[in-house]
Amino acid sequence: xxxxxxxxxxxxxxxxxxxxxxxxxxxxxxxxxxxxxxxxxxxxxxxxxxxxxxxxxxxxxxxxxxxxxxxxxxxxxxxxxxxxxxxxxxxxxxxxxxxxxxxxxxxxxxxxxxxxxxxxxxxxxxxxxxxxxxxxxxxxxxxxxxxxxxxxxxxxxxxxxxxxxxxxxxxxxxxxxxxxxxxxxxxxxxxxxxxxxxxxxxxxxxxxxxxxxxxxxxxxxxxxxxxxxxxxxxxxxxxxxxxxxxxxxxxxxxxxxxxxxxxxxxxxxxxxxxxxxxxx
Length: 280
Ligand SMILES: Cc1cc2nc3c(=O)[nH]c(=O)nc-3n(C[C@H](O)[C@H](O)[C@H](O)COP(=O)(O)OP(=O)(O)OC[C@H]3O[C@@H](n4cnc5c(N)ncnc54)[C@H](O)[C@@H]3O)c2cc1C
Ligand code: SF4
Fold this sequence. Notes:
Layout: E1 2-4, H1 9-15, E2 20-23, H2 29-34, E3 42-45, E4 54-55, E5 58-60, H3 65-69, H4 76-83, H5 88-93, H6 96-100, H7 107-110, H8 124-127, H9 148-155, E6 159-162, E7 166-168, E8 192-196, E9 202-208, E10 219-226, E11 229-235, E12 242-244, H10 260-277
Parallel strand pairs: 1-3, 2-3
Antiparallel strand pairs: 4-5, 5-8, 6-7, 6-8, 9-10, 10-11, 11-12
């Protein structure tokens, strides 16, 4: 495998695609390559050329989760989502751009089962062990999106600037279909450069986990209040980060037998998040 070290984002994006894959902190990509779950002929090391740091409401995609959780200028929901993610070591390497693009933690997928998301015929989780899986959007694949940070950014109404376009973070994701089983809309040669994160009037991120630390969300709830109202987004409940129009929308969930408990957790967290962001 070749390692390319471009000297600019233009050079980096020109090198991407056709078997060349971006490498930022490597906390997700390197294990996937090692397990044979991702393939790359060339790695394009983008960490040195990606914008990094916080400037007003703009965040460079190469900013680490550790840098975001420590910055008082960052809205509370995003700081909390970062501080509750992974471990301190992973947060000091992992970037916000890489976090948004992490793959599912579904163990069938991670163990290389020939499941639907890997291009096979069947979702093994639906008939098998699925305690940590989805309650929404689980028709074809019942995986639960693991990014706390994506849920926080969607609730905050953040947008992304890539080498090709500007888009709301929510539009980075799509439910997989039979024709296209990808869960993101990012092109293979597209780099995320920056995020624009509006300042809310109030925001929070609440996360239910099996352990108090270093655990993926069973359910994560982000809420942000702005002059337009309160926006809610959830982690750990659907194959993609899930926007919730209101608390009542939880009545429309489609849990599996083993994930019904998540609906009750989500109700409780949504209630608490709405209370904590309501005007005092
Ligand atoms: C044990 C463990 C526990 C974790 N727990 C949590 C958790 O609780 N909550 C949570 O939210 N996350 C969790 N994570 C995920 C972690 O936060 C991510 O692995 C990390 O943020 C990824 O960033 P990175 O820079 O290392 O990405 P990399 O591994 O370098 O890249 C990840 C993917 O993104 C692509 N990529 C990276 N940057 C860009 C860019 N700028 N533009 C386009 N493509 C890009 C890469 O090509 C690759 O496909 C956990 C990870 C591990 C390993
Ligand atoms: S939930 Fe998705 S990733 Fe997991 S086995 Fe089913 S199809 Fe595969």
